[in-house]
Amino acid sequence: MFVEDTLKSIYEITLKRIDGQETSLSDYKGNTLLIVNGASKCGYTPQYADLQKLHTTYKDRGLKILLFPCNDFLNQEEGAEKEIENFCQTRFKVEFDLFEKVKILGSSPHPLYQYLQDFNQPAISPGGIKSFLFRGFKKLAYFMMGKQPKTPGGVQWNFHKYLIGPDGELKAHFLSEMEPFDPALIARIEEQLSKNS
Question: What whole-number distance in Å separates Cα of residue 110 and Cα of residue 3?
Fold first, then answer.
C-alpha cells in the first residue's frame, strides 16, 4: 500500500478493521475523528480507559475514535490482531473502532500515517517536567531502535493523537503524554464537534 502524490483527501484512504473487514475513511465523512496509535505494553496503555470515556461522552455528538495498534516503538505491541482486540475489550471495555496493526516509522508507513505525517505540523505538548523527561527518553529509544519519526510532524510514540475536523482536514495533533481529557485537547474536540454535519 502507498499514498499516491495525487491523494487529495483523507477520505480516499481505505483501511482494514481489526477483524480484517475493509472500510474507507469516507464512511466517517462529516464526523470529528481522533486517530490514535496504541500499544498494549506501553506506559501510556492506561489511556485506553480515558479514550473509552471520551468515546462514551462524545460519540452521540459525532466524535469517532479510530485506534491503530503499532509495534514500531520498542516492540510494545507484538500481539496478533485477535489478541489485541481481546486485550482492549476485556481490560478496558473498548467500544470505539479498532483497526489492523500498522507501520508508522520507516520508508513504508501505512497510507493513513503517510498522509497525516506529510503535513509536518508541530505536535501540541502539555509541557512541564513530564514532557521534558519523556523527550529525553524518546531520544534514547530512537537511538536504540535505529529509527526516528520522519518529520517534526510525525508520530513521536504510542498514543500520539491526530484530530481531524468534520471537513476532513487535520486540525491539530498531540504528543503521547497529552491525556485524553487534557483541557487543551477537549477544547479542540469541542470546537470541531460544533461543526459536525
Answer: 8
The residues assigned a catalytic role are 42
In order of start, what are the domains of the chain with their CATH numbers?
Answer: 10-193 (3.40.30.10)
User: Distance (Å, rounded) from C-alpha 102 to C-alpha 177?
Assistant: 21
Give 171's DSSP letter: E
Q: Cell triple for residue 151? A: 518529520
pLDDT in tens, 118-161: 887 888 888 888 777 877 777 777 777 777 766 667 888 999 99
Bridge partners of 38, per DSSP, are 69
Task: Report how far residue 87's alpha carbon sits from residue 77's, in angstroms, rounded to the nearest whole number.
Answer: 11
Quick one: which H or E segment has residue 153? none
Answer yes or no: pTM beyond 0.70: yes
Q: How many Cα atoms sit within 13 Å of 134 on the Cβ side?
A: 17
Residues whose CB falls within 8 Å of the CB of residue 119, separated by 6 or more in sequence, listed in order: 153, 170
Separation CA 13–CA 68 (nearest Å): 14
